[in-house]
């Protein structure tokens, strides 16, 4: 590079592209510092070309611009603000199905969403980066503390080049920091011990690092699951790392005992279909003499179902389909339950043990569907959160699966299955069947469970479907089973609010 | 330092403490590299004192030792293996209360714990560190991808000193990496595009960083919540950072409507206490004419409770206390429910709205207890996970609270409360009341919920307790209510297995 004259005017400098060129957009860890750079041989040291009488002023203005730039980069690099989603062609626009004067409804939904965010988000979602060429060393994952319990911070250290004096600071928001008071004769100054900002100063790097190895963090308030961010700083280097604050949870384990009866409970819901139900029970008992059967019954005039290992629960008449499902599942005491509809029939291919085998081999699975008749119905859900004003986009894609279950080529990973499935009791109880869904409903359970339930479908276990019967209650049953359009409309209104959706498509 | 002769024997070197001195125990990020150090002025460059004919051999053996050292440090720095917990004095040792021949029970419990770990742990718990003085820049938190969806990795860059050639690699386990194929004329070599290990080589740092800015990650299998670890490497620098793989979940929001009746449902369980129940209902209706009341009833001979806004569910006789609680809660359609026992009485101080107010102002709260009579009972739980063989230690400490609820000095944060509380329906449904608990049970719900439920207690809302009555069912009620010792024993056995406990103390 040709050597330039020392005389540059302020204007020259301000128009010099090299002087004002901001560093490439660095993802910040709040205040990123890549560290001093090494100038290539032959570079022009720009500070030397600044007129002495303007140096201070120019440096101040440049620093101000740079801080603003960093703030903009920081803002850009927060969790990306949610963007509106695109509805699949053929979707139902939910706001078109709301009752008139739905402005209040929108407001209430927005308020519930804010509460939901307060409950589910924390600083543990914030995007953080490790800046390069930093002399700081710190934990980036896995530093977990119990609430209000002093815990040593692992791995804090400074590896800087030799200096006469080293000063580091560590700052937190939701807790306090402590370290050992240095022994007499050890040249270390500690400021802010027991407060949220700790500063350690020493002429000896070794002594400083010994103190850093003894820093402990104690969160201030009791919270079962949240986080804090610690800002670790040395000269113009800064790093931010997360601290997970979590109340340890005891596990909830089920004793599988020694046979199928202590592992699986059969659950079903019945309404005005006693002939069908009794036919089903007869076939269950052919193959599973002692298995526990739970029946949720909201028939108009309940009839007692006799027999051992049968638990029948009488609900208010016509209480509803999902209310009954939620009731039945709430009573299960075994690790798994098998959902059946009251008009199924067990056959020799209804081998519950085969479903248990797959679940046991894949402990992360929650729901395992089978075949009803020849029909192995399943679907996946394409869901986009959308933005905070309009809501999300939900698209149920029938017959779409992700891939096979490793080791089980006859089984596939999906998001939803038929009404014949084996399920982990605790996982399904955590999602629940929404008792507001009275008549027509199926996919809604899997939508509520999207992201909570690992679902798969298998082709080698099946149940049979009874041919349609005609008996004294059939007409009344059909009146409820095939509800008026108003029922469909209220279901869409439920999707609008409960799942914060903009549109939905049942494909 | 005095200048040493160049002639050192191999033995001299091997005994030289400075040569073999391993670096101080660094917390590793799998293979930590603090980066080259700057030797102090006057240092002896040790490679120069190694006899030339032994240099290669010595270097190899030193490198092998160093790798073993790193492996040992790595092993030391995994998540600390769980250590046995210490039972509080006066605790019940649960293994002493097991049936004879409990070896199989221990085995089954150990198996269930392994499954539980497979379901709840992932690489997202691994302790990771950012090594100091690394030219690598990378994300350390907040990089979240949808399963099987290509996503750009933010913030990857190399800021190394000038060299003729730069080679970086990025390696993952649960997915593949892709980047743009460099345009003709751009001197960049990309190896492993679309595979789990990507290597980028260039003579231009700028070109390399442009390519790094375009690297995307796609997870291989569908999983609702897991992680991957990416190893980013340049020369002898290495960093490991986490990738969160998560299926986005639609929220489940409740419409609070416009009055208390659309916000709160009252729930209760009754057994052989119709006089008490009817007295309670009368007082509820004095203050809340239209509020929905859900009654789970397992009385021997059920009697219909008439009246609007009453939902009565008939259970098998004497089915059980927690089974009934779980049933009642499974039927709630409002955002909150108020739990009451069937022998309470509402008074003018039973202002449900006051409890709702506190819950609404503190959206992270799940359960808010009040006073029964003059008694504001609450407790905290001290829980230590313990080790994998023996299990955890649980200690219920009555009348122990953490601190006040910010803004509500009459309320305190605790782990458990009385049987009079307002609760978020979805949060309590996720924990559940274990239907295996038939008679005596209270704290068990809060133990199952420890770490899942944020619980508080307030002194300004109360309910009254009926004086003990004597009616035709009282004797039979007492026979069930005060069960034989065998009931207490089976409860302890349940704690042993379900919560994987070693000991428990009710203080």
From TrEMBL, chains A, B:
Q: Which GO terms describe its biological process?
A: carbohydrate derivative biosynthetic process; UDP-N-acetylgalactosamine metabolic process; UDP-N-acetylglucosamine metabolic process
- Compositional bias (Pro residues) spans? 22-35
InterPro entries according to UniProt? Glyco_trans_2-like (IPR001173), Nucleotide-diphossugar_trans (IPR029044)
Q: Output the superkingdom of the source species.
A: Eukaryota
**GO MF annotations for this entry?**
acetylgalactosaminyltransferase activity
Positions of the Glycosyltransferase 2-like domain: 269-378
* Compositionally biased residues, Polar residues: 7-16
| GO CC annotation | Golgi membrane
Signal peptide (UniProt feature, chain positions): none
Chain positions covered by the region annotation Disordered: 1-35
User: Which PANTHER family does the entry mention?
Assistant: BETA-1,4 N-ACETYLGALACTOSAMINYLTRANSFERASE 2, GLYCO_TRANS_2-LIKE DOMAIN-CONTAINING PROTEIN
What this protein is called in its record is: Beta-14 N-acetylgalactosaminyltransferase 1
Which species is listed as the source?
Dissostichus eleginoides
* Lineage of origin: Eukaryota, Metazoa, Chordata, Craniata, Vertebrata
